[in-house]
Every structure is written in C-alpha cells, then in structure tokens.
Amino acid sequence: MSTVPAAETLGGTQRLRDWIGDRLLLILTLLAALASVALMVLIAWRVFRGASLSWSTFGLGFITGTTWDTNAGVFGAGTLLYGTAVTSLMALIIAGPLGIAIALFLSELAPRWIRELIGPLVEMLAAVPSVVLGLWGILVLGPFCANHIEPWLGRWFGWIPLFSGDPSSSGVFVAGLILAIMVVPIVASICRELFLAVPSELEDGALALGATRWEVVRGVVLSSSKPGIGAALILGLGRALGEAIAVTQVIGSATAINVSLFAPGDTLASRIAAQFQGAVTKLQISSLFYLAAILLVIGLVTNLIAQVIVRRFDVQRAAD
Amino acid sequence: MGTMEQSFDLSGGGRSRRRRLANRLAEVVATLAALSAVAVLAIVVLSIAKRGIGEISWSFLTEPLPLFGTPGGGIAPLIVGSAILVAIATVIALPLGVLSALLLSEFASRRLAAPIQLVFDLMSGLPSVILGVFVFGLLVYGHTQSGIAGGFALSIVMLPLIARSTQEVLRLVPSSQREAALALGVSRWRIVVGIVLPSTLGGIMTGTVLAISRAVTSGVSCRPASSGPTATTVCSCSCSTCRTTTTSAS
C-alpha cells in the first residue's frame, strides 16, 4: 500500500528529468550544428574581409592582371588562374580515365580476394600526406620526368607548343602528374561504389543476350552511372584545384604565363602557400586573401555542382 | 564452353572476333590501370623509405631541432607540437561533430537536415590552404601565432570527417531497437545515451582516428596559424623547410 505514492513521486521526477534531458540534448545538438554552419559563414566572411584592401585597390582587374610584383606593389591573379586551370585539367585528363578503369577492374573483373586486396591499397594512395607526395615529386618524379618522360614527349610532340621547351625537374608537368596521383583514388573509390550499385539483373540480362563483358560495361554499367561519374570527376577536380603544398614543392615558381608544360608555373593555392609566411606589406597579405577568396568561390561552386548531381542521382536511384 | 565457341563462330565470324578482341583489350587496360595505381603507391613508399630509413634513430626522434647549419639534432619538438595541436583540434571537433551528427540522424526533420548536411559536405571539400588563411585572418593577424590557432585550423579539417563517419555508424543502429525502447516509454535522450551512443562508440572512435590522421598530415592548414617556437607539426615544418633542404642537398 505504502509503495504506491512512492512510485508515483518517482514517476514524477523521472518525467521531469526526461523532459529536461530531451530538451537539453536537442538544444545541445542544435547548437553544435548551428556552430558548424556559423563556422562556414565565418570562414567565407573572414576571407572576403581580408581581401577588402586588395579589392579596393585593384577591383575586378585583379582577376585578369598578370603581374605579381611584390616590390612595386602590383598584384594580379591571371597567371595563377591559368596555372590552376592547366594543372587541374592535366590531372583530370590523366586521372579520370585511369580512375574509372580501376573502378571497373575492382567492381567487374577482379575476383573477390583481389578486390579486397587492391581496393584498400588504392585508397591508401589517398592517405599519403601531400607533403610526402610533394617531397617524392622533388626527389624521384621530377628528375625522372626531366630525364626520360619530357625529352620523349619533346621529341615526338615538340611541335605542339605545350610540349616544347627544355625539360626540367620542376614545372607544370610534374605538378599535374602529382595532382593526378592525388585525384585517382578519389575518382576510383567513388566510381567503384557507383558501379557496384548498378543492379546485377541488368548486367545479367545483357550477358544473357550474348553481350561481352566490355559491351555490358559500356552499355549498362557506364551509361547508367554517367551522372555519378560526372560528380566523381568534379570532386576530383575540386581536390586538384585546392591542393597547395605538393604543388608548391614541384611547380617551381613563375611570374609570367609559360605556354610550355615543362616550364615553371604557379597556381592560386601554391602561391598562397608559398608567400603567406613571408608576406610583408598589408597589400600583399590582402592580395593573398583575395587569391584565397577566388579559390574559395571556385571550390564552393565545384563542390556545390557535385553535391547537386549526387543528390539528384541518389533520388533517381531510390525511385528506380 | 566448347559449344558456345562453336555457335559464335557460325553466327559471327570476323565481327565476333572483333568483339572478343575489344573485350580482351578492355580487360587488359582495366587490369593495367589497377596495377599502375598499386605500383605508384609502392614506388612512393619504397623510395621515401629507402631515403629516410637510414636517418631514423632514437636520437633523431628525441633530440631538439638542429641549429641552423649544424649537424645532428632531431625532430622531438615537431612530434610534441603535432600531438598538442591535434589534441586541441580533437577537443574542439569531436563534441561538435558527434552532436551535429546526432541532430542530423536522430532529431532533425528532412528540411532541417538537408542544409546542415550540405554545409558539412562543402566544408569537407574546402581547400585546406583556405583554412590556414582564414585562421590567420581571424586569430593571428594583429595578434601572435599560437598553438590554439593551429589547433583550431586543424579542428575545421576534422569536423566534417567526424560528423560524416558518426552519421554513418548511427545509421547502422537498427531502428527496431529505437522503436522498442520508445514502445517501453523510454525518452529520447535516454535512447541516445543508453542505446545509440554505446553501440556506436567503436565506430565513432574509428572515425575520429581517421580524422586525426588527416589532421596530422595536413601541414598547410595550420602553418600560417602556428609555426616557429609556438607549435610546429611534423608536416607543417616539412612544408616550409623541405624546399630549402633539397636545394642545398642537390
């Protein structure tokens, strides 16, 4: 008899505690998420604010200006935009087909045990720190390019302006190769997931109709994952655009646009990484912020495009 | 197998041979692509190890940095610096990431979750050099470089990674468990604290370790924020010195 009221009061405090606990957890998680969103806004705001001095000095002309003269105090991003575009495109041209081919091997060809062996190894390539990859570029890849690959390209394709000029161990070409090594695992691992998600009935159906494996891949696997492959390539491009350290180490440093891939160059990210420590004047620091702002906009836009594709594609897959 | 071959020959002839050739070619190309990736990884690891292994010794790991131009010395301050910065970053990023993931997968409606999710996806795609510039502008410019600033920069590297990996393990908790607890009258926070978190602890730890490994290797994001005597990590120091050392060595 006497236990009934006791149980009731217990229930009362329990309910109050649950009410408070629920609210508290909800508020905590909400705050954490809002803080993350605010952080993102803060990043954009601070980078743009840092660029304001350079913006008021050079305006939009900064983007097309090709001089970067610390002593004269004249800064422009034209050379760097060109370098960023060339290195990233080169990385994408090499890494795109390679990554897709690796994904096809892993998802369609390889027996299970090879897939479980090579899959993680390819992903480990993405875990190599970019400083280490850059160092490797200086010590191994650069000299190898200068002694073997670039002379060969120059001999056979020297009539194309891109492959003219003297081979060198640091330049746009080596930077593009290093970036390609970084992009391959991104493209490969996303594409592998895509290809594994292709319904096996479709593949089996095509095989039953007498198609060869390659025809199945081309007609079913690749064509049904086209948007996803596009998103994977764009995500890889985003990585190549923003990579700073490794590129700084191998690209040399240039103050003018060089058409030849063997000549030194510079990208947005590598210029920021190379000069941020040594920047002296306020205008130079502000100009580096301006570069970061341009990089931020480019990075956000590419990522946004990729996310939109992924989301639409996911919805489509879910509906199928 | 033999009968298949025969029927192909009867119907196809040259066309069937071309198709099989194309197939073979595609197989060879895909296999070579995979092998080349593994080969590149092996070459990178082996060539770095071959050059570096002779240098590693107990004194290299435990002695202070050499004075400029003198032989000897080690990297002890860099290892300690890495540990401090990553500890600061983890303290900031772990609660933020786990709590945000909880909001996304346990509480938020689709309409609230979508934009937050997008922010995390965008954050993980940010070039790390921008994070360095941002923290420099926010905490260092006009003040001094500090370990806190560097740790803060690294925490932005870790935050989206922890949030995503936590979300993934939260998704693995069977909803039948949550529903069973709800049916017994257990409140939401007790479900989270008593059922969801304990069963995902291992996954959250794995995600955190992976995020830490990314933060340790990200040199450029913390270099503008903290370098020199304050706190330098192995990677941020090798960013700034390896250019000069290699040119002087060669």
Keywords:
heterodimer; A: 320 residues; mainly alpha; MetI-like fold; 2 domains; 78% helix; disordered N terminus; B: 250 residues; 10 helices
Evaluate the radius of gyration of chain B.
26 Å
Low-confidence stretches of chain B: 1-8, 241-250
**Assembly status:** heterodimer
Number of strands of chain B: 0
Share of β-strand residues of chain A: under 5%
Give the CATH H-level superfamily of the largest domain in chain B.
MetI-like
Number of domains of chain A: 2
Gross morphology of chain A: flat
Structural class of chain B: mainly alpha
Structural class of chain A: mainly alpha
Number of helices of chain A: 13
Shape of chain B: flat
Radius of gyration of chain A: 26 Å
Total tally of structural domains of chain B: 2
What is the average per-residue confidence, as pLDDT of chain A, rounded to a whole number? Answer: 85
Strand content of chain B: under 5%
Mean pLDDT of chain B: 79
Kindly report how far apart the N and C termini of chain A lie: 61 Å
Instruction: Specify the biggest β-sheet of chain B.
Output: none
The CATH superfamily name of the largest domain in chain A is: MetI-like
Q: Under the CATH scheme, which class of the largest domain in chain A? A: Mainly Alpha
